[in-house]
Amino acid sequence: MTLSVAIRRRLGAFDLDATFESEGHLTVLFGPSGSGKTSVVNLIAGLLKPDSGRIAVDGRVLVDTERRIFLPKHRRRIGYVFQDARLFPHLTVRQNLSYGRFFAPRAERRENFGHVVDLLGIGHLLDRRPVLLSGGEKQRVAIGRALLSSPKLLLMDEPLAALDEARKAEIMPYLERLRDETKVPIVYVSHSIAEVARLATTIVVMADGSVAASGPARDIVGRLDLMPPEERREAGAVLDMAVAEQDRHFGMTVLRSAAGDIHVPGLNHAIGSMHCVRIRARDVILAVERPVGLSALNILSGTIAAIAPAGENLIEIRLDCHGETIISRITRQSLETLGLAIGRNVFAVVKAVAFDEGTVSREKRMET
Amino acid sequence: MNWLGLGPDEWSAVHLSLLVASVEMIVSLPFGVVAALVLARGKFWGKTFLDGLVHLPLVLPPVVTGYLLLITFGRRAPVGAFLADHFGLVFAFRWTGAALACGIMGFPLMVRAIRLSVEAVDGRLEAAAGTLGANSAWVFMTVTLPLILPGIIAGMILSFARAMGEFGATITFVSNIPGETQTLPSAIYTFTQVPGGDASALRLTLVSVVISMAALIASEALARRVGGRLRAQ
């Protein structure tokens, strides 16, 4: 899938000027509120017209102001999962799900009703009306409805934003399954680094109506300078790690990568399965000598590759740990006391309890 | 209806009123829906004027409306003559004229009720339907129309009730001909004007109350059934 966007649109006093290309299976539009993410998605869906520019999906032009092309929204075949679900209140869940399917050309109805219902775990809700659903259930039905219209591209505008933490945790696995088990490319709007790190294959960072950076998820998530201030606490390096051992005695799981082994509280995953692991920069302690007598279980050795300021009196240090990158955020005081400099060998210390469901993804199928 | 002891004249007034109210309600419905949509959503020059025109029968004395109808739709009047010559549609001194007068008088009530429900429709739901592949006609049929159904029902009932009580415009436009244009209110009025008509007037009053109550209760039940699906239990 190739999504190519190059559009300008004036919205009141706000100028949106976004250009990016994405080949990823799940592209996250990432940025703080008011950075223009939703407008970009509305432009792709055809709910907004650009003042100038062009949008194409796999070479199929949706809008091109120069050639005077504007495909109306009902002919774009683009599924849209709104932040507020927008289920039809006068229809049952089953009728809501079938709505988009009815309008899809018969030959292109790829998604099987039963399969989608199973994928999203909504089989027991089919005869209910939307008013009787919880927020998480509504959002799952909305995803199913968009998916069953057999879209060529699925847009998701902060589908978790209106939900509490428990509901988010409930839906996240379904989103991961959606990414891994369907062929529909997804554009996902988010301002949460936790969602981004778990879901994204490609990230487009938006700020003030334009694209600040875009590229493969791995390269972007580690760039703390791109993160909005309120999300920096969650930012950090993302590593692909395999489950190496399950320690039944202590109930621990050992994850392995080139950087070394990491012990985390027991995860219910099969040995050998691959996972995306985010190590928050604020959770990483640096030591100039291998520490002893610590409760922290994870000590990784590495070399300082970069030192950059990360806000007032805070420093972001990137370590090269046998080819993998680990990021640590420390104070300027620590930097000067320890005399840290590029090229120096140091040890990164991370508590095992810094890892949980939010930082270790479910099994990940490797992208091809 | 012998248990009520209605005479043939009284019975024909009841029958005529129901016929006039039902016909005007059904015929004016499509116009009412279109007017409500245009007024709720349209952006065009002269919208204020159209809004005023629709509401005029609400503020004009009914006799004035009736007289305006007479000089427009009368047998020799321009529009009336045209319709009679080309479509065989005669309003003057016919029950169809009573239906027209009642329709015009009830129109603002119908439009207001439907318009309120159109304005309450969440446009985001219609946008969602569009992204699912529905063109505007389908969006209207499958989303907008079901959502404004409670308003449509309310509008129909209001229009029907207004027609059952309409007196001034009807009597001015089509007069008070027993069996042709003498609706319930005209009949009651007539009976109160003749000696010994009190009993008939009272019987018709009772009938009028019963019909109005029945219409109200039916509309409540219908609106609850339709609306109940849209709201939380």
Q: Can you walk through the features of this model?
A:
The complex is a heterodimer of chains A (368) and B (233). Chain A has 368 residues and is an alpha+beta fold. Chain A has helices spanning 37-45, 93-103, 113-120, 135-148, 165-181, 193-199, 217-221, 332-338, and strands spanning 3-11, 14-22, 26-30, 52-57, 60-64, 69-70, 78-81, 153-157, 186-190, 202-207, 210-216, 236-247, 252-257, 260-265, 274-280, 284-287, 298-309, 314-321, 324-331, 345-350. In chain A, the strands form four sheets. Chain A has a six-stranded mixed beta sheet with strand order 7-8-9-3-10-11, with helices on both faces. In chain A, helix 4 runs parallel beside helix 5 (165-181). Chain A starts with a strand and ends in an 18-residue tail after the last strand. The mean pLDDT of chain A is 87. Classes of the chains: A alpha+beta (368), B mainly alpha (233). The A-B interface holds A 45-47, 72-80, 82, 84, 86, 88-90, 99-100, 102-104, 129, 131-132, 145-146, 149 and B 122, 124-125, 127-135, 138, 142-143, 146-147, 229-233.
Individual helix count of chain A: 8
Query: Strand-residue fraction of chain A?
Result: 35-45%
Structural class of chain A: alpha+beta
Total number of β-strand segments of chain A?
20
Distance between the termini of chain A: 13 Å
Number of helices of chain B: 10
Report the biggest beta sheet of chain A as strand number plus sense, adding barrel if it closes: 6 strands, mixed
Straight-line distance between termini of chain B: 41 Å
Multimeric status of the protein: heterodimer
* Residue-averaged pLDDT of chain B: 90
**How large a portion of the residues of chain B is in β-strands, by DSSP E?**
under 5%
Radius of gyration of chain A: 22 Å
Strand and helix order of chain A: EEEHEEEEHHHEHEHEEHEEEEEEEEHE
Helix/strand-derived category of chain B reads mainly alpha
